[in-house]
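Contributing new complexes? Match this layout with adenosine-5'-diphosphate.
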Amino acid sequence: MTDSKTEESLISRPIIEIIGLTRSIQTGSHTVEILRGIDIAIPQGQFVAIMGPSGSGKSTLLGLLAGLDNATKGQILLDGVDITGLTEDQMAEVRGRKIGFVFQSFQLIPTLTAEENVLLPAELAGAGPEVTRRAKELLTRVGLADRLDHYPVQLSGGEQQRVALARAFITKPPILYADEPTGNLDGKNGAQILELLLEMNQREGATLVMVTHDPELAKHADRIITLRDGLVVSDESV
Ligand code: ADP
Ligand code: MG
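Output block (do not edit by hand):
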């Protein structure tokens, strides 16, 4: 009885658990509360869209979930590990094993080729030479097999974002965060990026947390969470 119960709770444990999360920033004499107590549990493999008006705290939340920023209060458990207390080195290790991130502005390194950009997170995580093959496979999968040696400046926005997607996925992370990944792209390129993200989510089982303004994108999600003024104001299954 106790055993099966333990097992059940292990299986159903969310991959992301956010408990009483707050983030405030001291500006001069007063404190700005950006996130004011967020509680969300996300099961493995779910596709969650985060929506809400500009300034509602979406990017701040994603940054905290990726350990790129420090919480003021509360906990963030990734796969049961509270990342709010980790050192930079420990966080880098968790990021390397568990997290891929796609930004609105691509954030590729201009002095590295497409292939080198994709390889970077794997190299930082200590991967061996076999990872070169995976980088080529991923770039092929996103339709850039003939652009391996191109630098970001030689690629269109849509192509840069596809490189960024391959980079986010090089370490086979169970969690993929995307902050308005189609925000700088036209409709056609945006649709292509969404399709690739959906493939990562559906075929590879990656948990996908995507900030978007676009209801057309959000309707592909399993769940839509809306923030307003640093609070969750709705949380709905689609
Ligand atoms: P969203 O992504 O939903 O547009 P953000 O998370 O970027 O919102 O920002 C939420 C609020 O926090 C905004 O009002 C923004 O101006 C403020 N904010 C974000 N970062 C900082 C900072 N470093 N210093 C002061 N205010 C900030
Ligand atoms: Mg934002």
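Reviewers usually confirm one structural detail per submission. For this one: Residues 25, 27, 32, 34, 52, 54-60 surround adenosine-5'-diphosphate (ligand 1) (CB under 6 Å).
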